[in-house]
Each structure stands twice: as structure tokens, then as C-alpha cells.
Amino acid sequence: MAFGFFKKKIQDVLPGKVTTDREELFCYGFDASSTDGAPSAVVRPENAEEVSEVAAFAFENNVPIVPRGAGTGMTGGAVPLKDAAILSFEGMNRIIDIDAENMIAVVEPGVINSHLQEKLEDRNLFYPPDPASMKFCTLGGNVAENAGGPRAIKYGVTKDYVLGLEAVLPDGRILTTGGPTYKGVVGYDLTRLLVGSEGTLGIITKIFLKVVPVPEETVTLLCTFSKLEDAARGITKIISSSIIPRTLEFMDNESIRAVENYKAFGLPVHEEALLLIEVDGSRAAVNEEAEKIVAICSDFHGTVSVAGDIYSKQSIWEARRSISPALYHIKPNKINEDIVVPRGKIPEMLAVLRDIAEKKDLTIANFGHAGDGNIHVNIMTDKNDEEEYGRAKDSVKDIFEATLKLGGTISGEHGIGLTKKQYVGMELSDTSIEIMKNIKDVFDPKGILNPGKMFPPD
């Protein structure tokens, strides 16, 4: 159908909330992946009823819809395909309620993750999922991708905090799943089904979140190693020593040097690896666990320093969260993957990644959430160098094959979107994919909601 007609009709329902201006559309055509598209319209609803009206009209007229938060996704999940309308949630950014007594927060999908964190701090509460993009990413996007973050090793990921959802189905019906209770087993768990579905089943309009008390004490440790193998063995030993850190982050030498060249944090650029470890809880327990970690790292020839004040902690975390932008100073482009292997296989996986980098003559920077086996593999390249870029793209399959051979998965928290869908069949059976497609058909019989995502090409 003509999008001029679409704009005219939706404009009648949502005056001033629809645009087809080319310059504005450009801003909604890409995310943090290397893919881009061109939406034909952008609609900015302000409540669930408006979302419902737009969805019903789009369903009736076969207009593809792509829900969008802040566009910080790494796999093209919010990138529109041809003739799609973007449904942007920047106008639905209200924290509806913070129930400190029952430790529940109710939010709209456009709320920035860090904004909720700041409001919760005033109540001595916090929301554990903390993606690297937490200062920019929206909670709706976090739910759609089942986002994780450094604290996942101890506190889990987004799905562990979503108690219920309000979502609009592609035909405009409003669905409510779960709600403000910590338990509930009536019927199928539709909440868990929607979390991580990348906007392909429903359009999230309200989120019920579990929040937790701020721990009494947090200790931050920075451990450096001259050998990558020692750091990897240290990770395995810490996890097997009945210690559950709040975070156990890993950076290899490429990542360390990239961050230090980006901004002088004082990181040890000659060391092969760095571990950023935090423990939290009661003061007595935290001090005891910190001492154990220091001893373990020392046994593996690591050098340990303790962040003595809040400013030191903030500086360390700023360095960690600067890795992604810093890497672009190595090469103008990167292929970013977020593989996960069993924690005991981390040393073997890192050795494989080093071997692939050498054989393919590529720079591969590795960092991530070592505590739960989640390694962010960054293949640095230049698209203008076609031969090198070809080698970089070819290496992705090698990395995924090695990951699966070690019992891992090809995506831990970034989702599938556009960039990984061709590899889904490497991990999932034909039966699994068929069942998932059948579920998609039940929710979205016309296939208009975020089409072209997740599933491998036929």
C-alpha cells in the first residue's frame, strides 16, 4: 500500500505523531550493528491504546511494523526491512510506580535502564541487569533481547526480573501476562515466551519488574596477568571455589590497549589480561571472599589492586564500558559476536580464538562476562579492504563451530536479529526451528511484526 495513505490515516488517529520526512527516517534506519535499512514511516505512540490502534490498522492493511527502543542492539533487531513502519517508544518513557515495600517497579518500554537505576537508588533498591549501554538503552529493548550485563553471574539476566508484561498483538489486541506477584503458574508462561522474542511476537507496552535491596558492601578488585592462560585458569578456580562474585569481567591485551589509547585510565598495556572482579553482600562475607580471590589470583601470578573509593570504582567501570567505542580506533569496522561456553572451557575457547586470529591474519579483541562464560569476540576489520573483510566474515563460522563443539551457544545476550540468523541452523534442530515458526504464526499470522528477523533463510 502507499505510505502516504498510511500516514494520512494514522495521522487522523495520532495527530503529529507520524512522520515520513526523509531526514528523520534516516535516524531510525540502523542500530549498533553494521546493518541498516530505510523505514517508510515512524510512529511515536504515547500509550498502549495508541499502539493498539496503529497495530490494528497496520494488520488490516498488511503494513510491517518494527518496534524500536534506543537502537543500541548489536544484531540488527530494530533495523527495518523495506516498506516497514518504525514504532518508536521514545514517548512512552514513564516510570509508573516503584513499590518499595513489595520491591516491584512498573515501567513503560521507553524508560532508559540507568534512569530506573537512579530512581531506585533513592529507595535503597537496585535493578541488577546492567548492559554496557545502560546509560542509553531502554528497558523495552532489554526485555525484547533478554539483555544481561556484568552482574549476570550472580543476579541473572532480564528474564529473571520480568514478573509480567502488557503487550499489543499484531492485530491490535492487548495481552497482559503475569503481574505484580513473585509467583504464578496459571497456564503457559507467556511472559517468558515474550522476553527475548526480539519484537517478533508482541509489542511491549508495560513491564512489571522485580527489584532487590542494595547490598551492604561492595568491593572492587582489579587483577592483571602477564599470561592469558593464567587469567583463564584463575577464572575457573574462582568459580569452583564456592565464591559467586557480583561481577567477573575479562579483558585481553587488545582490549586493554584499545581502551588506554582511547582514554588514559592507567591500565597496564603490557599485560596479556585483566580481570575486573566485584563481590557484594554483608561486610564480613565480602571481605572474606575478597581475600580468597586475592589469594587465588596471586597463585596464578596475578597482581591485585583494590579500588579504595567510589571514584576509583567509577573509573574502573568507565574503562570497562569504554571498550566497544575504543575498539574503533584499531579498525573502522568490527564484527561483534557474543558467544558463551561452559565456564570451565574458557581457557580452551580463548586459545582457539587466538589460533583463528593468527591463521586468518586478523586482529581479534576479546572481553566480556567471564564469570558466566560469555565472551564478546570482536573481529576488527575495514570494509574497504574487501580481502580482509572477507577473511573476517569467514572467521565467524569458524568461531561458532568451535563454540558449539565446546558445548556453547552462538549468542548469550545480543540476540539473533539480522546478523546471526544465517547461523541459527548450526545450533538449533529443524524441529526446534519449525516449532518456533509455528509459534510465530499463532501470534502473527500475517508475518508483519518485525519481519525477517531471527529465523534462517528458507
Feature tags:
458 residues; alpha+beta; Uridine Diphospho-n-acetylenolpyruvylglucosamine Reductase, domain 3; Alpha-Beta Plaits; 7-stranded antiparallel β-sheet; 5-stranded antiparallel β-sheet; 16 helices; 18 strands
The CATH topology of the domain at 95-213 is given as Uridine Diphospho-n-acetylenolpyruvylglucosamine Reductase, domain 3
Biggest sheet details: 7 strands, antiparallel
Query: What structural category arises from helix and sheet content?
Result: alpha+beta
Proportion of strand residues: 15-25%
Total of helices: 16
Low-confidence stretches: none
Give structural notes.
The chain is of the alpha+beta class and about 450 residues long. Among the domains are: about 5-90, 2-Layer Sandwich (Uridine Diphospho-n-acetylenolpyruvylglucosamine Reductase, domain 2); about 95-215, 2-Layer Sandwich (Uridine Diphospho-n-acetylenolpyruvylglucosamine Reductase, domain 3); about 215-325, Alpha-Beta Plaits (2-Layer Sandwich), CATH 3.30.70. It has 16 helices and 18 strands. The chain has helices spanning about 5-15, 20-25, 50-60, 115-120, 140-145, 150-155, 190-195, 230-240, 255-260, 285-300, 310-320, 325, 345-360, 385-405, 425, 430-445; strands spanning about 20, 40-45, 65-70, 85-90, 95-100, 105, 125, 160-170, 175-180, 205-210, 210-215, 215-225, 245-250, 275-280, 305, 335-340, 365-370, 375-380. The protein has a 7-stranded antiparallel β-sheet, with helices on both faces. A hairpin with a 4-residue loop joins strand 5 (about 95-100) and strand 6 (about 105). The longest helix is centred in the C-terminal third of the chain and has 20 residues, at about 385-405. The protein is globular. The protein starts with a helix and ends in a 15-residue tail after the last helix.
